Amino acid sequence: MTTHHSGVATATRTTAAAARATDLTKVYGQGETQVVALDAVSVAFHQAQFTAIMGPSGSGKSTLMHCMAGLDSISGGSARIGDVELTGLKDKKLTQLRRDRIGFVFQAFNLLPTLTALENITLPMDIAGRKPDRAWLDRVVETVGLADRLKHRPSQLSGGQQQRVAVARALASRPEIIFADEPTGNLDSRSGAEVLGFLRNSVRELGQTVVMVTHDPVAASYADRVVFLADGRIVDDMPGPTADTVLERMRRLSGASPQPGHDAQGRTS
User: Fold this and answer.
1) Is 182 left (phi over 0), alpha (psi -120 to 50) or beta?
2) How many whole angstroms separate alpha carbon 20 and alpha carbon 167?
3) What pLDDT, on the 0 to 100 scale, is given for residue 258?
4) Residue 157 has pLDDT above 70, yes or no
5) Spatial contact of 144 and 198, defined as CB atoms under 8 Å apart
6) CATH number of the domain where residue 99 is located
7) Which of 65, 118, 143, 222 has its CA 20 to 30 Å from the CA of residue 58?
8) Are 111 and 166 in contact, with CB atoms under 8 Å apart?
9) Number of separate domains in the chain
10) Are strands 225-230 and 50-54 parallel, antiparallel or unpaired?
11) Does 11 score more than 80 pLDDT?
12) CA 223/CA 200 separation, integer angstroms
């Protein structure tokens, strides 16, 4: 069950929040050039839940993710990962937080071409001097279906397989939350469905928490809930989304008519 009032989106669940924003504000520029990207946004992302963030271009959805992940500074309010308040953290502490507690999946795969799939998956832990939990790593590899591709380099993998390596890399360190920014934006519809299925499985089978920014109603339908932004504010919070219900809500928000299977910019998911 999800409630929504006064710009506050909260999911009524017994699980704790993996991340939370309270009156989060982000302002760019000053004076006449000032732009309010986020306007007192309050939202909780609960553990073992898959949340999609949607909205028209310029609505603040990517800004919200970047602020919540410690990739961008905050102008006002607060953002927390678990029990850690991000506001005021020094760069070194932020770097440690992102490395140890947050996983990232981006539209670009960001794989090192000279490393094998397995080496790319374990690279963040290698850099941090941490040994991977072998049992967990094996489970992640099995979940994303890469057991027979671990010795392959990125050039030997399809786009969908490369993004699955990126998902496995994000999962391997057992982060508290994964932020995925348009993870299917560079993929055809079939490969996109593979990656979305594996993100869904990571929530259902591994208890992972996933927050995903997307333009695509079909991609959003894989989530447990969809949070909609417009003009820097939360305007709706939809539990149990389907591609059709998301598409209709996006039409009302933007006046556009994106078709299922395509995002608002016309790319296949």
Assistant:
1) left
2) 23
3) 40
4) yes
5) yes
6) 3.40.50.300
7) 222
8) yes
9) 1
10) parallel
11) no
12) 7
